[in-house]
Amino acid sequence: MSLDLISCMKGFLAIAEHQGFSQAARHTRISTPILTNQLQRLEKLLEKRLIHRTTRRIELTEAGEIYLRHVKRILVEIDLAQNALTNLEKEPHGVLTLGIPSLLHSLHFIEQLKSFLHSYPKVQLKTMDEILWGSLADGTVDLIISGINMSDKQLIKEYLFTAKSTIYAAPEYIEKYGIPKNIEDLKNHNCLINLRVSPNKEWSFANNKKVQVQGNYTATSGINILHACIAGLGLMWTLDMAAKEEIHHKRLVEIPLDKPAKIDIYQYYRPVGAEHIARLTADYFKNFTSRKAL
Residue 145 burial by CB count (10 A; 0-12/13-18/19+): exposed, middle or buried? Predict the structure, then answer.
């Protein structure tokens, strides 16, 4: 791959990310005519139109959308190769800020985090449960792990694994109130609502079934909901991995009312300009989860 092609790719990415030639020129400090020329050479090489241009805005073609996804990955790998040589004699170090829901952090990823910190002892790990997606763009957070499936051209999204989400209750609650007969019967039970994952107070099941629920206890922390459920306050809808340990110790019971919803877990990080440690961590988690049986 020639350096000229890499420069053209970078120019195309800048135009796409900043949604215009003049905006891209300001951010990259490359003149508009040069960016235009880079795009034209790229389109000539590919024999495909990548961008529709009007007087007011630009829009990626279908070919442009596909090519952009690959360009992001290629440039990340080039950046990684350069960083690998730069850091050949330097051990990874610095603060890594990871955005991850509390239940995933405490009940699943703690093993990965422990292993990661043992592998890179000079890294200082900071985790955040309160996640604002804008934090990735401004650099407040380096990496987000989430069950939210979102598309953002300015972020790289990578699939990690799939979990299922179903209903659980403590034996104390079941003894006092019984169990719901079906998903419609949930309205007659006290449901503990995690506002982070159910802001509309809806619980999901397979085939896009959604049920409106209600209850006298809500929280924005999955851990708080888990503790409330163990205490017998009501029913909980959560990931199977979150309840696995409590099921084993008979503190919770699964209530299979319908086929559980499948939740894909992803990791998100910035494509270009991301710190080497963020990419390193992303690769680590991706490889780790592919080796582990969930």
Answer: buried
- Kindly list the distances between the CA atom of residue 36 and the CA atoms of 1, 8, 29, 43, in Å, as whole numbers in the listed order: 21, 10, 14, 11
Distances (CA, A) of 9 to 26, 69, 75, 201: 17, 11, 8, 44
Question: What is the C-alpha separation between 60 and 184, in angstroms, rounded?
Answer: 45
- Walk me through the domains of the chain, giving residue ranges and CATH numbers: 3-86 (1.10.10.10), 94-154+269-291 (3.40.190.10), 162-263 (3.40.190.10)
| Helix, strand, or coil (residue 145) | strand
Residue 241, helix vs strand vs coil: helix
Q: How far apart are CA 83 and CA 22, in angstroms?
A: 30
Q: What is the pLDDT of residues 139-173, one digit of tens each?
A: 788 888 888 888 877 788 888 888 889 999 999 99
Amino acid letter, residue 171? P
Residue 259 main-chain phi, psi, to 5 deg: -60, 130
Task: Enter the pTM of the model.
Answer: 0.58
Tell me the pLDDT tens digit for each residue of 45-63.
Answer: 888 898 987 766 788 889 9
Q: For the CA atoms of the chain, what is the radius of gyration?
A: 23
Q: Which helix (H) or strand (E) holds 203?
A: strand 202-205
